[in-house]
Amino acid sequence: MPVTKFDVMEKYRYLNGFNSYLESEAVPGALPIGHNSPQKPPLGLYAEKLSGTAFTAPRHENKQTWLYRILPACSHPPFTSSLPQSSSTETTAGSSSKQQLHYIPNQLRWDPFDEPSEGEIDFVSGLKLIAGAGDPTLKQGLGIYIFSANSSMSSREAFYSADGDLLIVAQDGCLDIRTEFGWLLVRPMEICVIPRGVRYQVHLVENKPVRGYALELYQGHFTLPELGPIGSNGLANPRDFQCPVACFDEPQPPSSQDGEATEWKITAKFNNGLFVTEQKHSPFDVVGWHGNYFPYKYDLGRFNTIGSISFDHPDPSIFTVLTAPSDHIGTAVADFVIFPPRWLVGEDTFRPPWYHRNTMSEFMGLIQGSYDAKKGGKGGFVAGGASLHNVMSGHGPDAESYEGARNADLKPVKVGGEGNSCAFMFESSFMVGVTDWGLKTCAKVQREYSSHSWGGVKVHWTGETKERNGYLLEE
Ligand SMILES: O=C(O)Cc1cc(O)ccc1O
Ligand SMILES: [Fe+2]
């Protein structure tokens, strides 16, 4: 697609830094100096503030950006509700604002989700809510999505969500994302975050379909986890987060006979309902911006993994890339955790994850390769599939993985090295419900997940039960 005022090298240039205060100008002089809202901003631009927190949020939490654009975002006719076109879209992000969630204690696992085989499905129509908790109207909770698309959004279309910040995990195929702030190329093993309200469009690269996972945060924002005794570097380092540079469309001359400019379609996700409007000017008209509220991407290959070099399997919190804290310190609304290739050297240690029941819910996906606690292959935990271990649902290695690890020679092993494996987890303090799409429509639930995984766990008990009982009785 044509890129105005912007060559390809420029398109893939980024600004670096997490939560930094950044600025970008596509035309020198677009940003006013020492001033946010002069009487007449430079170059005849409009100044527009985009707030990511309440005006009065404390400085360390305050997020906002000043946009200098050709026309303000408010210049559009009223939105109208976009009704589902067919029953197959009933659980598309927001076609119904009251999607029923089913809360069930069973362990769940899904085969890889289908990439669309027919029709034109773009990022917005291919975004399916699979699980969630809370309510966007109260700014509480989160939504978990699977997306797949076989076509780019129109270059005259933009989407935004008023419901929350969207963390996108690319699993298959690349997403070339145009945002109001500029372009972001997101490849498999990369993630991006599009903040609440930011308008964007998603293109395929070389027409290759895309598939992945996403988490929408109805409350707060992602931040980097504390490092505590790890020190001042490690895990995801701030300079590896990349944000776009400004890029804009110039006003289009009227194209049709009657002098009307071409229409742009804007779709808003608002309380999980979709609303549309059409306007005659490009929403991608931001010539310069400055602030700390912007979309960003991160290459998971840059994650500096820390692990045990003595004994015992540490908590997976050491693999946290981003965390969205709740008001209770240490308890996250959502953590984004990865399991990248790493060396395991623990002595006298059962190396895969232990069996456990967690007060947090654990939704997992697999970007590529395999996961050391679960067998792969058909009916296993496979790239593009998912699992959900809800609050207090017992889980751990399947019987086969347990026996393997119990008898393994404990020499140093690079886990996940062969397939450059990377599983991830959306861990939340909320109990999450599963949608009808997740339970039925997608038709990917593995009915035998629990029995295949744990039906065959063996008794290894070596205590002498009878004699012990006898002893206890004599006492
Ligand atoms: O359940 C899982 O597979 C995820 C997980 C991994 C780990 O190393 C420790 C705890 C945990 O929940
Ligand atoms: Fe777990």
Automatic annotation (TrEMBL):
Pathway(s): Amino-acid degradation; L-phenylalanine degradation; acetoacetate and fumarate from L-phenylalanine: step 4/6
Listed EC numbers: 1.13.11.5
Cofactor requirement: Fe cation
Enzyme class: oxidoreductase
Positions with biased composition (Low complexity): 86-97
Chain ranges of the Homogentisate 1,2-dioxygenase C-terminal domain: 302-460
Limits of the Homogentisate 1,2-dioxygenase N-terminal domain: 13-300
Cited InterPro entries: HgmA_C (IPR046451), HgmA_N (IPR046452), Homogentis_dOase (IPR005708), RmlC-like_jellyroll (IPR014710), RmlC_Cupin_sf (IPR011051)
Residues given in the record as homogentisate binding sites: 371, 395
Binding site for Fe cation: 356, 362, 395
CC per GO annotation: cytoplasm
Keyword Metal-binding carried by entry: yes
Annotated family: Belongs to the homogentisate dioxygenase family.
Protein name (record): homogentisate 1,2-dioxygenase
Organism the protein comes from: Apodospora peruviana
